[in-house]
Structures are given as C-alpha cells and as structure tokens.
Recover the amino acids of this structure.
C-alpha cells in the first residue's frame, strides 16, 4: 500500500483537531450565559389591546398567526409579553400623537403636530429602517435554530431583511391548484407570495426555467422546496447548503450512494456536481452532458474510451457507457474495479 | 380484500367520510372564536384524455381519473381549556403522492409533529423483458425461450414476442415524527425519527461475458432509518447548538443475479449466469456543534464543528458465479470494513467596524479521511467470463479542502453598496493526479438604487486554480494506467481531468429590477460564465454558459393582472480526445496526433411563460390562465482533426449525432366561483404536452433492436420516455370553515 500523504493524516489526526475545536466551542455558551436578556423598560408600553383599538383588521389577521398565539396567549419571556410592541417598539408616544390628532380633528381644527407614525417602528416596504435594523427586530427572538448563521451570510450581505421574504401580520392564503409549483405541507405560512418557491424565484429567475426541464427533482410537484437543500437564513456551508458538502446534501435522500465502497470513483466521491445539475437538465438523470461524452471528458485509453463512436453503437445508444459500467457510483464487488459488477 | 381494492374503495369513500367531518368541525371551530378561516376541504372529480399512462406524465405525482381529495386541513386552538393546539393537513389523499401532517402541542412549550409522505418515481412505462423475477434480485429466463435462443441466437426477434411488461417504477414512503420542547424562549430540545422505504425497480445495464449486454430491472428495496437529537440555547448575546444524528441504510436486495439467455452451461468465457453487487448497507453517525457569540454590538463570531463517521462492512460476494472459472486468487478479506471520517469545521467573524461597512471573515476546513483498508486482489474475474490476470488494489481516496476568505460590503447610500471579496482554497488529495492545488477567487459586486423604483446589481468574479503538479502516474499504483493489459498505450501528454486541471473561471452577472408604479414590476437578469482549462490539451478544453431572463407583472386594474417570463440559455462545451490502438504482433502502437478528434456540445433552452388573473362579480368569480413552454435543443458535433489520407488514420466515426430536443407545454385555465361565504366551486382545464427527440433511446423501440454486430446477443428493456399529450378537466368544491 502506498504511504499516506502528510495532509491526509488519517483518523488519528482528526481527534486532536476535533478536541481543539470543541475546547474553542466550550467558552461560547459561557459568554452567552453571562448576559441574560435585555428587555426595555415597560413604562413606555401601552399593550396590544391599545393597538387593537385603531388597527382592528390587522390585529384580527395577526391573531390567527402562530406568533400572535405565543405573544397573546402564552408568552415565554418579558419581550413576548409586549405583544405588538415587541417588534414595533414602545407605543405610548405613537398613541398619544394619534389621540391628539383625533382630538384636534374632532374640534374641526387642522392637526399641526408630528405624525403618529414617526413614533413607532414601521417594518417592511417603506420602512425608514435599514435592512439590518429591521432584521434586528426579528432576531431578538429568532436568532436561534436555522438563523444562527444569519450574520455575514450571503443574503444579509446583499441587503435583504426578514421582511424581504416574510410577512408577519397574516397567514398566507392557500396556494391555488393553478400555481406553477405545488407546496409541501408545512406549518410555515408567513410568506408574502403564494408558495415558498415563488419567494426564492423572485430573485433567482433562472431557477424557474431550470425547474421546467424534463429531468428535474420533485420541486414542481411539491415534494421538495429550495429549503430542502439550502438554508436561506445562512449556513456555515458553501452555497447555503443544509449539509456540510454537496455530496452530504445529496446523501440525505440518496444514502445508498454514501459508501464507503471497495471501488470508489474519485470524482463521484468528491462532488456529485461533476456530472449532475441538480436544478434541472434536459438530459436523463439530471446529467450535465449525455454519455459517452460525459465520461470521455475524463476517460481516454486504448480501445473504446478514446473513440468518438457512431450514434448507433452500443457505447452511445440507450445508457451509453453505463450500459455496461452500471455501478458508476461505486462497487462493492471483488470483480468490480471497472464498475461492471 | 386485496390492497388494490382497498385503495379504490378508499378513494371512493374518503370524500364522503371527510365531508361530514368538516361540517361537524364547523360549529366546534366557531365555538372557539370567530376569526379567519380555520380550515378547508377540497374534493372533486377529474377526467383525463390522452397518454396519461406516460411515465413522464406520472413522474413524482398521481393524477388519476375519478374522485380526488385535493386538500384537507384544520387547526384547533385552545384545546382542553389551555394553550394546546392540533393541526391536521392532508394533500392528495389516497394517491401515490399523498401527504399527511399532524401537529399537536402547547403553543409555547412543546410540539409533536407527525409526517407521512409518499413519492412515486416513474422511469419508463415502455419497458419489456424476457426475464422473470424470482426471489428479490434474481431473474430467470423461461426454459423454452432460453433453449430456442441457445439453439438459434438469430431467433431473438421471434422470441421477443414472449416478453412481458417490466416494472420500472419505484416509490418512496416516508413516515416520521419530531418532538420539540421549548421550556422558555432560550432553550430548545428536539428528538426526531424517520423511516423511509423505497421499493420498486429501475433500468439497469449489465454485461455478461464480453457480448451479452442484458438490461434488467434493478430491484430497489431500501430502508433508511434516521434519528436526530439536539439541544439549543440562545439569548441576545449568542447561542449554542449540539446535536447527534444517525442514518442507517439497509438494502433488502443486495445482489442482482440473472441467467444468460444464450447459454445454460457455464464455461470459461461463456458464463450461464451473472451477478452484480448492488449498494451495500451502510451507516453514518455525526455530531454537530455550533456556536455564536456577539463579541460586541457590531461583531459576531460563529463556529460550526461536525465530525461524521461512515461505515460499511457488508460481506463480499464471490469473484464470480461462473463455476467453470478457476485459478482465482482467494479474496484478501471477507468484507471491506470500510471506515471514513469527515470532519467539517467552519469559523466566521461578521463585523460592522463602522456603521456602513460589513466585513465577513471565513475559514473552513473540510477533511475527508478515508481509513478503509487498501485491499490487493491478485487477479479478478471479468464480467463473470474469465480471469483477468492484472492485479487490482483498492485505494482509500481522501482529500482535505481548506478555504479562507474575506469580503467587505460598503453601504454607500441606502440601497447602494459595493462589495469586494477574496477567497483562497487549498485542496490536498490522495491517490489522484494532482496532490495539491490552490485556487484564488476575487469578486466585486455593485448595487445601485438611484431611485426607489430601480435596483441594479452587477458583479464580476474571477477564479484561478493552479495544480502544483499534474502527474498522470500518481494514481496508477497497481491499477491500469492506460487501459487494460499489455497492448495499452499511455495517455497523451496534456491529458488532464477537468476537476483537477488548471482552470480560469470568469463569471459576470447583472440583475435589474424596475417597479415604477405599484402596477408594474420588471426583472431582468444576465449571467455569463466561462471556464478555460489552460494547460489541458486533451480532455475538457473549456465551456461557456450564458443565461438571460426577463420577468414582468402588470396590474391592469383591481380585477385584472398579468404576468410573463422569458429565459434564454446556451451551454457550450468543447473537448478533445485521441483514438489509438496498442501494439499488435510486430506492429507498433498507433499513437499519433493525426488521430485526434474534437467534440462540441451545444445546448440551447428557451423558456416562456405567461398568465392572466381576472376577477369579477364583486370578486365572486375569478379566472386564472397560465401558459408555459420549455423548449430545449442539444447538439453533439464531432470532428476529426487529422488527415484521412495519411497512413494509420483511425478516426472514421467522428460524425455529428442527431439533434436531441424536448418541448414541454402547459396550458391551464381555471374558473373559481364563490357559491357562499364558505363554499367555492372550481373548474380547471389543463393541457400538458411533452415532445422529445432522443436518438439514444428512440432506437430502443419497441425494446430491442440489434444495432451493431456486438448486440446480436443482447437484450434491452426498451425503457424509453416518450412524449405525451394529455387533457385534464377537473371540477372541485372547496369548503372553508
């Protein structure tokens, strides 16, 4: 057996590296625990019922959301107890300005004071707050789970805020059957568009075209969404993937290809994207190029791999090279070094 | 009562069962609170005309004629006089693509989620075979047919009349549950388990001896169990996550064995049967640790560390099932004892050193450590035919990928931003041509928002990958460096694999969004990516991809809105190769540049879509119309670079392949009428038309044609995916409560 390289030092090398990393992680929760939540004082708050007095319709729609149920029925901390003001900030000045406005108008006079809207935090389109300031309101509660890596993520860097993709005040209406993409069953209904997919496709229009291809993963049919493979809220992994690499993302649904195998095909092991286009292809099996040309991008040797071949030859028709080399993802057969067994 | 009949009865009666349930729930739900809709039930009837048995039509879905239950969902709150809730959701009930989801919990404390999901996967509905499936993974040929083929292989076309339909479809069924406990806003724990069964068949190529290509339906009978558990803590200063996950894959049909239709008595070079090892059982377990801490109000440090252990130790099959083959060396082991460890570590520091500047620094180490034993096989049996004396050694491929990068985004003005970024990647590989390569990537992105209604983003990215040394001999070991046996010729200098070769990648893209009024929105995008393999003389030389799109929506009035989209894409790849022959007798090898040839792969795709939405009668009546067309063409052009008049010219098959193409049309027209405040009726017409031209599978129709002299003793499934034309009409009632 050939000697192993210095860099790929084996399992033994992984253990100290892991221990060092775990040590580094150990002080993170300590720091986090050292400062227990900061909640603004309550004197400037008026309570959600006061909001309802003027915003009846919005309050009614919001009440149907999961967030409202937590805020209004079972708040878990002081921030959630603030209800509407947890996100929009203390409302006393806003309410007083609005009441003054109403009082002056009721007397038939022109209100010359400041508009009540400037005393409340408005979020979403038209908000005077920057994207990061708006997002900070949501991250007060939502910086856990899949949002742990939001800071510095691709979408944060491009100036998106939570409100770019989500609406908070009402559940999304059910997607009509005519929608181009069916929606998986989900408890998450806080999207402004009809389906989760449409949210992503607004900024990634090329994916819409790719998903119409003859060879595609079941995104049109609602068995998957973009979020099956990507975490739009930030990920430590490349391309916002939900798993540590491209292959590990694919293995979530295709664990049979994980191996280890006796005979491995190195480009397959390194990246499925060497041969496949996961967002849709006009070739079978999501292949980038049809065999035999796909295989001939790398393989050339005496005999058939180096020949162009006619369209009617057995190296080309039907499954091309995999007519015979069918175990191309790896073989565990003692006679399978050429992926034929 | 058989299962099929049960399903049919279920289909017929489920709407009848669900409808009273929905009506019963209505007063219960109204008793809770008046408010927005709490659920709905949509049932209907569907009629189909056309080729609705097509595999392409039924891919990942089940659109059958007759009754259907499109959706049922209901949400119950404040159960048991507390904060308990129950949500039930179903979609496409009692169909092959049915889904169920039940969620029960306390609004702020805990939640149980149960999911059931079924997905059909249709490969082809045209497959035919002479083989008969026996026990899982075993295929036999009827004796009479086999005897005829043995006596007269030329009788194959006649014998094919005895072929029967072969199932080439599979189905995934996944059930699972998740329990989440959130005692307060800071802590969360979860435990999750799922079991997936994937069963069915898919087309699978096999070669027996040197000339019996026998395509079979490969059984897929997989079970995958997954267990995950985790805990999380977070507050305004940061958070910490720890988790464990295990994935256990089990293949109930670990081998495929089949008879040779053309021979019943095994001999050297002429086996009567063959055997292939299918995917072996394997397991993967991983730990995940993630943490983030806000070092200051403007700086956050994030870390993610995850080791994973992958194992595979299924028993090896014998070298061959051909009893006539002797002289094979003993197996070096009874199983692989395969061990891989993956260690992924990521560290990210994101900071706003000044208000308008975001700086992100990243480091990532992805170590793929392969501790699988390297096994030496002194010889092996090629395609169950005969002993190949060439020794083989399995190699534990490993790699380590380290990346470090920094990018800075400067917010010039609200909506305007400039981003500069740089990334460095170091890749160490073992047992590949390139032991070490480094890639430098730089990019710049400019966001402009001169008016509230215009947004422009343009970016340019340049990446340069340099292998330290491209050494064709690094991976040879005892493997065949240049093909098989003594007559092999070394690959020409300059042959480089595209995933290791020196490469320069250019990428430019632009996005323009315009919404001058609340009524009009336009989005246009353009992307151009080119890759050049600078040192490659043979292999992939380069590729050029261009993608452009334009999307628009216009609200004509409060009752009429329009949408449209168009995309155009081109993909071009160039590759070069050489045809050569090894030495034969006193003749030297034929290995000259006069036998070089090139292939140019050209794909173009047009995608068009449009829709209109109209409402009237005080929004009681709505009409939705949608049209989409995806049209793709593919060409593979082949050219010889040599002179046919020179002696030793070999390249006689460099001819263009026939053009391939797909066209997928969809037209949908749906009318929805509000009968009462809670009942809607809906009529939908949908046309789907799929046309395809693929020379690779067209010749397979009906399912086996001796195409060249080597396929006279071969049998294929004829698993093509022909086009279809289907009209779908559905009428449904949607009851909302």
């Amino acid at each position: 057996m050939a000697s192993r390289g210095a860099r790929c030092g084996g399992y033994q090398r992984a253990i100290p590296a892991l221990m060092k990393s775990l040590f580094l992680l150990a002080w993170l929760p300590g720091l986090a625990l050292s400062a227990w939540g900061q909640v603004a004082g309550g004197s400037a708050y008026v309570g959600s019922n006061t909001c309802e007095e003027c915003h009846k319709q919005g309050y009614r729609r919001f009440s149907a959301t999961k967030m409202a149920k937590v805020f209004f029925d079972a708040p878990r901390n002081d921030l959630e107890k603030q209800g509407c003001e947890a996100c929009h900030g203390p409302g006393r000045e806003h309410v007083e300005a609005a009441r003054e406005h109403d009082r002056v108008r009721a007397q038939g006079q022109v209100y010359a004071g400041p508009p009540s809207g400037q005393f409340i935090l408005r979020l979403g389109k038209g908000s005077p707050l920057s994207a990061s300031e708006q997002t900070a309101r949501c991250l007060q509660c939502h910086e856990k789970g899949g949002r742990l890596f939001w800071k510095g993520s691709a979408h944060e860097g491009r100036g998106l805020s939570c409100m770019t993709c989500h609406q908070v005040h009402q559940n999304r209406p059910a997607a009509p059957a005519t929608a181009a993409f069916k929606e998986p069953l989900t408890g998450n209904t806080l999207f402004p568009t009809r389906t989760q997919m449409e949210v992503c496709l607004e900024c990634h229009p090329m994916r819409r075209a790719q998903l119409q291809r003859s060879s595609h993963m079941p995104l049109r049919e609602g068995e998957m969404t973009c979020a099956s493979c990507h975490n739009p809220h930030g990920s430590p992994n490349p391309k916002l993937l939900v798993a540590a690499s491209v292959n590990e993302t694919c293995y979530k649904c295709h664990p049979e290809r994980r191996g280890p195998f006796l005979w491995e095909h190195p480009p397959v092991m390194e990246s499925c994207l060497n041969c496949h286009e996961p967002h849709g292809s006009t070739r079978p099996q999501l292949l980038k190029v049809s065999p035999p040309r796909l295989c001939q991008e790398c393989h050339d040797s005496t005999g058939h791999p180096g020949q162009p071949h006619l369209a009617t030859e057995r190296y080309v028709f039907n499954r091309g090279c995999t007519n015979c080399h069918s175990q191309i993802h790896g073989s565990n057969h003692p006679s399978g070094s050429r992926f034929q067994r | 009562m058989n299962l099929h009949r049960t399903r049919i009865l279920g289909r017929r009666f489920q709407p009848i069962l669900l409808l009273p349930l929905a009506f019963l729930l209505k007063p219960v739900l109204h008793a809770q609170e008046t408010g927005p809709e709490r659920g709905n039930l949509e049932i209907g009837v569907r009629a189909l005309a056309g080729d609705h048995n097509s595999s392409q039509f039924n891919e990942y879905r089940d659109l059958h004629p007759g009754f259907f239950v499109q959706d049922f969902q209901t949400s119950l709150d404040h159960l048991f006089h507390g904060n308990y809730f129950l949500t039930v959701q179903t979609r496409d009930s009692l169909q092959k693509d049915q889904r169920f989801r039940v969620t029960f919990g306390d609004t702020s404390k805990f939640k149980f989620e149960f999911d059931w999901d079924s997905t059909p996967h249709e490969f082809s509905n045209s497959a035919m075979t002479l083989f008969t499936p026996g026990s899982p993974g075993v295929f036999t040929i009827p004796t009479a047919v086999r005897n005829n083929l043995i006596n007269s292989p030329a009788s194959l076309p006649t014998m094919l009349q005895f072929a029967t339909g072969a199932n080439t479809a599979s189905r995934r069924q996944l059930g699972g549950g998740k329990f989440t406990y959130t005692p307060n806003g800071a802590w969360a724990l979860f435990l999750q388990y799922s079991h997936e069964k994937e069963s069915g068949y898919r087309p699978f190529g096999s070669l027996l001896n040197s000339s019996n290509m026998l395509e079979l339906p490969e059984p897929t009978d997989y079970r995958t169990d997954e267990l995950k558990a985790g805990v999380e803590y977070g507050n305004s200063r940061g958070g910490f996550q720890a988790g464990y996950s295990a994935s256990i894959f089990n293949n109930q049909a670990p081998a495929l064995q089949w008879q040779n239709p053309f021979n019943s008595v095994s001999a050297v070079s002429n086996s009567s049967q063959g055997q292939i090892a299918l995917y072996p059982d394997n397991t993967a377990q991983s730990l995940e640790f993630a943490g983030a801490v806000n070092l200051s109000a403007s700086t956050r440090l994030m870390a993610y560390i995850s080791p994973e252990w992958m194992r595979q130790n299924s028993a090896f099959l014998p070298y061959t099932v051909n009893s006539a083959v002797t002289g094979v060396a003993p197996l070096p082991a009874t199983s692989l004892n395969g061990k891989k460890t993956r260690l992924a570590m990521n560290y990210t520091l994101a900071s706003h050193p000044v208000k308008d500047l975001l700086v992100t620094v990243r480091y990532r180490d992805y170590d793929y450590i392969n501790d699988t034993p390297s096994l030496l096989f002194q010889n092996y049996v090629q395609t169950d035919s005969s002993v190949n004396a060439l020794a083989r050694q399995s190699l534990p491929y490993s790699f380590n990928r380290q990346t470090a990068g920094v990018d800075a985004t400067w917010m010039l003005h609200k909506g305007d931003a400039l981003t500069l970024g740089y990334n460095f990647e170091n890749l160490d590989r073992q047992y590949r041509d390139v032991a070490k390569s480094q890639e430098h990537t730089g990019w710049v992105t400019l966001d402009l928002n001169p008016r509230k209604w215009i947004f422009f983003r343009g970016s340019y990215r340049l990446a340069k990958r340099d292998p330290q040394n491209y050494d064709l001999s690094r991976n040879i070991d005892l493997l065949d460096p240049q093909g098989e046996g003594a007559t092999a010729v070394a690959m020409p200098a300059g042959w480089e694999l595209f995933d290791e070769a020196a490469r320069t990648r250019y990428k430019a893209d632009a996005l323009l969004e315009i919404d001058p009024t609340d009524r009009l929105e336009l989005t246009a995008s353009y992307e151009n990516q080119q890759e050049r393999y600078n040192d490659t003389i043979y292999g992939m030389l380069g590729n050029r991809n261009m993608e452009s799109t334009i999307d628009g929506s216009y609200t004509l009035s409060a009752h009429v809105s329009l949408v449209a989209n168009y995309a155009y894409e081109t993909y071009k790849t160039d590759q070069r190769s050489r045809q050569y022959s090894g030495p034969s007798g006193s003749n030297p090898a034929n290995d000259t540049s006069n036998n070089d040839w090139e292939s140019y792969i050209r794909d173009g795709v047009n995608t068009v879509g449009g829709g209109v939405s109209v409402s009237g009668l005080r929004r009681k009546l709505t009409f939705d119309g949608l049209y989409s067309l995806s049209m793709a063409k593919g060409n593979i052009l082949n050219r010889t670079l040599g002179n046919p008049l020179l002696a030793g010219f070999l390249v006689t098959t460099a001819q263009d392949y026939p053009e391939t193409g797909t066209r997928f049309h969809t037209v949908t027209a749906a009318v929805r009428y509000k009968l009462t405040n809670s009942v809607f009726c809906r009529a939908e017409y949908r046309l789907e038309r799929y046309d395809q031209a693929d020379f690779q599978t067209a010749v397979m129709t009906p399912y086996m044609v001796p195409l060249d002299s080597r396929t006279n003793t071969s049998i294929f499934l004829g698993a093509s995916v022909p086009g279809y034309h289907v009209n779908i009409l559905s009428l449904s009632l949607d009851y909302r409560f």
